[in-house]
């Protein structure tokens, strides 16, 4: 036993041991209660969710404390009663004797009768006593581990506090008067009552808010020099909101609870939830109070994370860091931010959340209304598969091979991060002259293959069916097939899918003949349900990149995400109208720099709509894709459009491309 435990009497060790034992189930119940409550509270009510999470963490501390007081008081009373019995026995009193000795007539027969009526209860009590005896033997060892863990965690925590104090003085860089003035105005606009100091430091990698009595916002020199003023202002606003909400104090108390209850996994989940919801609430407050642009804010956070990763530094957990919480979930919330629940509602509902958690600790619900548990039930089971044409990207003067390689690497990393089993369709003419491979471009295809993504084929040249005879078209695809099988054969991978360039399928009879040719080759053509003009946005984005026009790039990214959301609305309506359900969607994109740079926002938006990313094969197995279509027009259109026209129905008006993008594209065509 640790020396510190030797100063405690055995009764105190026993009481603490039982407190630890009961805390195991108590904290688990609190976590379950919070889990249930968070599913009753909409994501938009970030303040309410944060209040519920903080209340749950408070209960994790209060319940074991109350348990210890109850156990220790009961233990003290039992000890006093035992001592009193002993004293009375020593004095010769009958009070302290067992019942068999207290009665002179028939006492023995009474006890026998009692024992015969309560054998079952006695057996249970005996088992309980045996378990209790075994546990009490373990308590000293358990307390030794708890004390050691508490001391180590406390040492780490105080080290963090010391680091925070040092950060205020280390490697400070002077801030110009313009930014000081801007900071004062921002403080007033956000209604921050206490005095806050702004400093710039080379020793941190992300903006942080520190201090309880002397609040300070510390901005890294790298961030101050790399973020544009609008981005930096909204990041500073985030830190000021933390100070205004007294989140620094709550964070310190949170660290103290973590030090005491470090042994319980459920407590760590609750504590993680507190940090997550705290960042969501601060983000919502910034968006509401400052009127910040969601896309600008999201991009600022993304750039901030990139800077932090490059410097490979993290802030102490006691600090309020701008990039705290779950990065991707915060970006998703910001880009989909709506009006926050009114403050009056949040105030009384925060109290309601605490009451609900308390009630859940006392009552076990026999059922939970399905509609409240799963607010996303109407979108349950949605699937989407994504195909990229072409791999590698088509040659353009603004996208040379070197840039295409970097773009491919970024896109592959994002697809892996978001677990998107995408398929890329090879355009062989981009990596070969038909006889030999071009090493630099061919390596892009091999990167895709080696990352575990499927590869399909289009044509050797990106040739529309309308511009060739059937024989010429087949020869073009066959030439591409040989190249693809050569690359895939190196890893014993089969070729399975074909994608029509520009979605052109020519006249119906030739289309059918070509489909038979594909089947004979063991290939299946992809039917895209979500067609879109992403390629126009990507062209406009590349033009802005060429000019190093950051503001236009940001504007195009925001417009692109909004446009893709409208396209999903458009085609989801088709799905319900045509099939009466959500069929798996198949979406076509190009492997552009816009898609790579916007992947986090794009995939978060798709997941927010309830979609799960699946392989193309998984999606195409749905019976909906066996629906006949007899389209014979000269346009490349989605299969929803084809099914609609085949049924003799009128097409829906498609969402329009943003004017800025349309203008850039039109200017290109006139040059």
What does this structure look like?
It is a single chain. A 5-stranded mixed beta sheet has the order 1-2-4-3-5. Strands 6, 7, 8, 11 and 12 form a 5-stranded parallel beta sheet that branches. α2 packs antiparallel against α3. 36% of the residues are buried. The protein is α/β, with parallel strands linked by helices. About 9% of the residues have low confidence. The longest helix is centred in the first third of the chain and has 49 residues. The chain folds into 2 domains: 339 residues, no CATH class; 293 residues, Alpha-Beta Barrel (TIM Barrel), CATH 3.20.20.370.
| Unreliable residue stretches | 88-118, 338-350, 363-379
- The beta-strand count equals 12
Strand order in the sheet with the most strands: 1-2-4-3-5
Strand-pairing-aware structural class: alpha/beta
Distance between the termini: 84 Å
- Portion of residues in beta strands equals 5-15%
- The gross shape turns out to be globular
List keywords for this structure.
single chain; 671 residues; alpha/beta; TIM Barrel; 2 domains; 5-stranded mixed β-sheet; 5-stranded parallel β-sheet; 26 helices; globular
Give the structure's gist in a few sentences:
With 671 residues, the chain is α/β, with parallel strands linked by helices. Helix content is 62%, strand content 7%. The protein folds into 2 domains: 1-87 and 124-375, no CATH class; 378-670, Glycoside hydrolase/deacetylase (TIM Barrel), CATH 3.20.20.370.
Please write out the topology:
Elements: H1 3-6, H2 10-40, H3 46-90, H4 99-102, H5 107-117, H6 119-167, E1 172-173, H7 177-189, E2 196-201, E3 208-210, E4 215-220, H8 221-226, H9 229-244, H10 247-260, H11 265-290, H12 294-311, E5 320-321, H13 327-335, H14 343-362, H15 370-373, E6 382-391, H16 401-417, E7 423-426, H17 439-450, E8 454-457, H18 470-489, E9 497-498, H19 508-520, E10 524-525, H20 534-546, H21 550-579, E11 585-589, H22 593-597, H23 599-608, E12 611-613, H24 616-620, H25 639-646, H26 659-670
Parallel strand pairs: 2-4, 6-7, 6-11, 6-12, 7-8, 9-10
Antiparallel strand pairs: 1-2, 3-4, 3-5
Helix pairs in contact: 2-3, 2-6, 2-11, 2-14, 3-10, 3-11, 3-14, 6-10, 7-9, 9-11, 9-12, 10-11, 12-13, 13-23, 16-17, 20-21, 20-26
